[in-house]
Sequence to fold (135 residues):
Amino acid sequence: MKRKVEDAGVADQFEIASAATSTEELGSPVYPGTRRLLERQGIDCSAKRARQMNRDDYDRYDLLVGMDRENIRNMRRIVGEDPKGKIRMLLSFTDDHKGEISDPWYHNDFDQTWKEVNLGCDALLKYCLENHWDD
Fold:
């Protein structure tokens, strides 16, 4: 997503961060399969370490985007109520408004997950720009 807002020339209008919704991988580097895929795409994630999402993230960010139902459930557990409708599934921004990002941890198909995440991020950026989030 960071690359997409940079390519669109609107990076200064966005603050993008990643956070874990569970505690299993806190402090860990990016998973090796993901790291290799990102390296092939020219994305350096060598300094990235998993951090825990927290309640303050709800107030800090305009959107909290999860990849699957488990993420969404964990996000709601962490932040409590969602009166502003900030918690959304990434693929909910796509035209078909359904589906979860497939987790390569279970199927080892990092390329498929990359395609799904890209589709979702393209749709998310379009949504933000159409709703004047770049003002």
The chain has a mean pLDDT of 90. The two ends are 18 Å apart (CA to CA).
